Every structure is written in structure tokens, then in C-alpha cells.
């Protein structure tokens, strides 16, 4: 492998949403280990502050709600100002990781809950891609990774709203890979299976066992395993890969 | 370079046209060089040159060189 394949993130910034969550923290750590400057998005100022203490200048917290359209625009302005002032390298990567999972059968899913799923899991990533791609296209290079789910790839009883919101993001991933290729931006997704994070910690032992029985590797995945896949897709090692959905799921068979 | 020349240069770089072809009447989708991909590169170029972040509505409205000038004026870029 040539040196440049390993060094592309060293002179690059990556914006990661949901940075203080289980998978988010692992992606932040993996990117910083690889030399990137990370813009860490989240609502929990305290948690982001603690991460900044750990990582120092390599981590730049951005406190905002991804569903607040105006806040998202302001966040991109702040980000670009830091780049213009020479405080951070240009934006190269975007990881749309913030997400919430609604478990609710069709008959009891309110329209408000459905809209909330779509807002957080689809509309917010879409707006992030719109704004990030404009910054990336200035340099004609960039890499976007969306976190979708095996639930959306395979379908899951009682999770239709969540599945639909993530499937929408898969559709956008594949379409934008085609649309943004001429300006040097790759767009891919990672589809985790059952990963041990705060999102899944409410699973009681029996429910957990049921999921794991349908997982060929017979265990839950770790946030680091998801982060490694994200890092691969962000990096130039995946330079010839776009429009791809990479499962990190221990071969989940629903 | 004044702002008028900067604008002309930005259009010229983004669309791959000679600067003298960049006139106020030049309009989106009427020449092969100004298609949707070039539009994206153009927006990036204008934002870069004038150090602004355009709203999506303004990007949708930016359908000609003359229109681009009007829109950029909203972002405090003046064309004497
Ligand atoms: N864990 C799994 O098994 C699994 C499987 C498949 C896919 N995924 C996906 O992986 C991603 C990360 O999940 P995770 O397991 O790491 O869950 P997590 O620990 O609950 O983290 C989710 C993150 O999203 C952030 N977030 C939620 N709503 C937000 C909003 N409106 N504005 C800003 N941030 C918001 C949360 O921030 P706050 O701290 O501010 O709430 C949190 O940091 C999600 O997209 C999830 O759907 C997870």
C-alpha cells in the first residue's frame, strides 16, 4: 500500500454526527488515530467537552440538534470559518451517524413518531450531505459515509418506521454516489447488525439471545468494528468504492 | 481584480468557458457546459471566491450571470 493511501486523513477534517454516542465515539477515536481533525457533532455539550479533554485540538465540538435546519446551516458556517481561519484542514469526510431507533408496530405508530424518525434518520443526513458536498466540491474530493442498518436492508417486524427512514438513506446514498462522482465525492453506507451500544442496551437477555441466534457469528458486534468499516470507506483505501452498503453484522439472517 | 472580474473568472473556471463568453445573459442549462454538475462546481467556486455560504433557495434561483450578481449582493458583495 502506498503511503498516500494512509495519509489522506492526516490533512483532512471529518464531521461526525452523533459523536458522543456508542458508535460515534468509536468513529471519532478511529479517525483521530488516523490523524484526522474531527468536527464532533452532538447535543450533549458535557459529553463533547469530556471528549475534547481526551483528544485536545484534534477534536472540535459542534453542539447542535441535527433536526434544526437553521442550526445545521449555522454549524456549517462555523465549521467553514474555522477552516478559513486555518484552525482546521478542509472538510474531506462526513459521517452521518446520529440516529434514533423506534420500535413500534404499525397499528400504534403515530404520524408524529414516524416524522421524527424520518427527520432524524433521513432528512437531517440529507441536509448534511447537501451542505458538506458543497464544501467538498471546492477541492473536488470528499467521502461521505452514512450509517444505515441491517433492519432497513432486511426488514424487521415492529420496526417499519425506523427501517423506512434508514432505507431512504440507503436510496440517497446510491443516488448521490452517481450524482457526486463527477465532483470527486464518494458516497457509501455502513449497515450495522446488532451492536453493543446505548441504543441496544435496553434489550433484555431473551430478546438479545433471539437476535444473536440469527447472527451467524453468534455474538453482538462492537462499536469499534463499525468504526473500522467507516474508516475504510472514508479513506483512500476505498478509493474505487462508491454507492456501496457495507454490512457489519456478523451475517445477520432475519 | 475587482468583483466583476472575480465573478467572470469564477464562472469561467467552473464552466470551462473563456471569460469573454461570461456575459450577464448567460443562462443555466442553455449551453452544454452549464449543466447540473457544473452548477454545483459553480456554486462551490462562487462561495469560495466571495467567502459566502449560499442558501439553497438562492442556489435554485441562480439561473443566470445577472441573477448571480443580484443574489451575491444580498451577501454584501457589491458590483460597482
Ligand atoms: N447499535 C446498533 O445495534 C445499531 C444497529 C444498526 C444501526 N445503528 C445506527 O448507528 C448509529 C449510531 O447508533 P448508536 O448505537 O451509537 O446509538 P447511540 O449510542 O444511542 O447514539 C446515537 C447518537 O445520535 C445522537 N442523536 C440522536 N438524535 C439527535 C439529534 N436530534 N441531534 C443530534 N444528535 C442526535 C445522540 O445524541 P444525544 O446524546 O444528544 O442523544 C447519540 O449521540 C445510529 O444511526 C443507529 O441507527 C445502530
Automatic annotation (TrEMBL), chain A:
Sorted keywords for this record are: Oxidoreductase
Q: Which SMART domains match?
A: PKS_KR
Q: Which family does it belong to?
A: Belongs to the short-chain dehydrogenases/reductases (SDR) family.
Q: Does the keyword Endoplasmic reticulum apply?
A: no
Q: Please identify the protein, giving its name as recorded.
A: SDR family NAD(P)-dependent oxidoreductase
Q: Does the keyword Oxidoreductase apply?
A: yes
The UniProt record lists the Ketoreductase domain at: 12-193
Q: What is its EC number?
A: 1.1.1.-
Q: Which InterPro entries match?
A: KR_dom, NAD(P)-bd_dom_sf, SDR_DHRS6-like, SDR_fam
Principal EC category: oxidoreductase
Supply the CDD domains for this chain: SDR_c (cd05233)
What are the GO MF terms of this UniProt record?
oxidoreductase activity
Automatic annotation (TrEMBL), chain B:
For this protein, the record's InterPro entries field holds: ACP-like_sf
Which SUPFAM superfamilies has this protein been placed in? ACP-like (SSF47336)
Superkingdom to which the source organism belongs:
Bacteria
What is the protein's given name? Acyl carrier protein
Q: Which organism is it from?
A: Alteromonas oceani
Amino acid at each position: 500500500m502506498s503511503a498516500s493511501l494512509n495519509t489522506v486523513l492526516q490533512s483532512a477534517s471529518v464531521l461526525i454526527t452523533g459523536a458522543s454516542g456508542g458508535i460515534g465515539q468509536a468513529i471519532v477515536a478511529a479517525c483521530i488515530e488516523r490523524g484526522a481533525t474531527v468536527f464532533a457533532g452532538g447535543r450533549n455539550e458535557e459529553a463533547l467537552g469530556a471528549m475534547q479533554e481526551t483528544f485536545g485540538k484534534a477534536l472540535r465540538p459542534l453542539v447542535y440538534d441535527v433536526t434544526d435546519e437553521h442550526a445545521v446551516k449555522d454549524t456549517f458556517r462555523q465549521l467553514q470559518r474555522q477552516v478559513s481561519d486555518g484552525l482546521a484542514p478542509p472538510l474531506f469526510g462526513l459521517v452521518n451517524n446520529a440516529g434514533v431507533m423506534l420500535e413500534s408496530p404499525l397499528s400504534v405508530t403515530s404520524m408524529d413518531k414516524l416524522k421524527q424518525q424520518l427527520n432524524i434518520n433521513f432528512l437531517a443526513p440529507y441536509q448534511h450531505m447537501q451542505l458538506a458536498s458543497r464544501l467538498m466540491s471546492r477541492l473536488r474530493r470528499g467521502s461521505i459515509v452514512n450509517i444505515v442498518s441491517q433492519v432497513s436492508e432486511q426488514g424487521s417486524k415492529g420496526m417499519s418506521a425506523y427501517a423506512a427512514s434508514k432505507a431512504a438513506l440507503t436510496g440517497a446514498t446510491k443516488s448521490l454516489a452517481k450524482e457526486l462522482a463527477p465532483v470527486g465525492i464518494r458516497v457509501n453506507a455502513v449497515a450495522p447488525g446488532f451492536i453493543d451500544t446505548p441504543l441496544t442496551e435496553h434489550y433484555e437477555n431473551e430478546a438479545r439471545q433471539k437476535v444473536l441466534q440469527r447472527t451467524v457469528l453468534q455474538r453482538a458486534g462492537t462499536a469499534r468494528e463499525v468504526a473500522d468499516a467507516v474508516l475504510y470507506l472514508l479513506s483512500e483505501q476505498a478509493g474505487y468504492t462508491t454507492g456501496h452498503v457495507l454490512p457489519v453484522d456478523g451475517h445477520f439472517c432475519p | 481584480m475587482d468583483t466583476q472580474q472575480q465573478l467572470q473568472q469564477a464562472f469561467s473556471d467552473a464552466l470551462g468557458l473563456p471569460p469573454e463568453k461570461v456575459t450577464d445573459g448567460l443562462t443555466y442549462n442553455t449551453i452544454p457546459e452549464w449543466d447540473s454538475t457544473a452548477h454545483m462546481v459553480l456554486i462551490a467556486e462562487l462561495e469560495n471566491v466571495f467567502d459566502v455560504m449560499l442558501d439553497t433557495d438562492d442556489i435554485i434561483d441562480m439561473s443566470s450571470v445577472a441573477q448571480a450578481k443580484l443574489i451575491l449582493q444580498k451577501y454584501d458583495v457589491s458590483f460597482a
